[in-house]
Write a structure and sequence with these properties.
Number of strands: 0
Distance between the termini: 39 Å
Number of domains: 1
Order of helices and strands: HHHHHHH
């Protein structure tokens, strides 16, 4: 009997979570950006189906920024559903600023460092004859990728709000 109650409590919590408009908006934005990223990856001609699947599941970098879509959607939907004067909106807004700044700054710089490291590794490997394993270069986002992701998140937040208001 306790197991049934625990399961009912679990499913009740899941229903509550998925009944939250801010949560749903944020998840839809993240999923949409990942799907769009994998479609763009497939049609770019430079990537394989395996790369597109990786982009769908869990890749970093690329167009559009799913990090930016997620936090922009979260901040805007929080403003729409909870109000601009709410404490939770202020938290969501500053979290969005931090994540977007990180995607453009720190993570992008790490990607540029990885590119330089790979070039150095290839040159040194060729000169001294040892094997070099490449470091992942695409870690951050360009301003266009961040803008596209943010716009996607904002549009989805406004659409969801206009449907359920």
């Amino acid at each position: 009997m306790e197991i049934i109650n625990e399961q009912n409590n679990f499913f009740s919590l899941v229903r509550q979570l998925f009944g939250n408009h801010i949560f749903l908006t944020t998840i839809i934005s993240f999923a949409s950006s990942q799907i769009l990223k994998s479609i763009l990856c497939l049609f770019s001609g430079r990537k394989t189906n395996k790369d597109a699947l990786a982009a769908l599941v869990w890749s970093t970098g690329g167009m559009p920024s799913s990090h930016s879509a997620l936090v922009a959607s979260m901040a805007v939907s929080t403003a729409l559903f909870e109000g601009i004067g709410s404490t939770i909106f202020v938290i969501a807004l500053f979290l969005a600023f931090i994540v977007i700044r990180d995607a453009l700054g720190v993570r992008r710089a790490a990607g540029m460092h990885a590119k330089a490291l790979n070039e150095l590794g290839r040159n040194t490997s060729a000169k001294f004859g040892f094997e070099w394993r490449l470091v992942k270069e695409i870690q951050g986002h360009t301003p266009l990728e961040v803008t596209a992701g943010s716009m996607l998140g904002i549009v989805i937040a406004v659409i969801v709000w206009s449907i359920v208001k």
